[in-house]
Write the structure tokens for this entry.
Amino acid sequence: MSLFSRIRRRRPPIPDGLWLKCQSCAEIIYVKALNENFKLCPKCNHHYLLSARERIDLLCDADSFSEMDAVMLPGDPLNFVDAIPYPEKQAKAREKSGENEALVTGTGTIEAIPFALGVMDFTYIGGTMGSVVGEKAARLIELARDRRLPLLIVSASGGVRMHESIIGLMQMAKTSGALFYYKQAGLPFLSLLTNPTTGGTTASFASLGDIILAEPNALIGFAGPRVIKQTIRQDLPKGFQSAEFLLEHGMIDMVVPRPQLKATIAGLLRYLLRLPVEAPPEPAPAAASAA
Ligand SMILES: [Zn+2]
């Protein structure tokens, strides 16, 4: 028996899902360490995808998030079939993501500041925008305007959902229109772009933030680099469509590592809402009344 097969025989089997090869640096990383580190690779700091719920936990104060429109489901107006019929695709996406659609919306607090929050879930059909994503986003924006709340939308999206075709495309106009009225009310909209944010999502609400933030190295663009390269028949510059490249070229305002996101967003909201920089000190206990 060779040395290697003897070692193989002696080694206990590794349970599935305990270790993972980093998709960025190829190091073998311990999944528990990844999960305890904001889903950042401990070796190369690669920012792994967060689900909508993980993102809400990261940004909102504990138990402060109250969801709205949770059971809004898409129809199939075009009877669209690609590899499988669209309703089947939706059912699979629901099972995979645990969400009813690619956008979760609601209200909560961040460092005690009330705000309206929308978070896209990339695991639901690539975070694509169809009629439900557009409707939920528009309702969130209108609620934020009515209650005079600051607004944050976290994008992770492959663009408009082709299964809804023109109805999906119309959501770009709807969400942009809702934001126009929101901004007319003098309220702040922060847009956070995460890996990846592309297509009609980039071309509508995601790019309309008063302040646009992004996570490090996030891919942000309209068409993918391969399509652009084929169209213009030129090599693309290094780092093209990365968050850092877009920051350097004035398309976004800040690149913020995940562990600093909550404090940075809360700080921006305090500034934009003219709130005290720090929480006011606790009032001194009233002097004991004379006996
Ligand atoms: Zn890594």
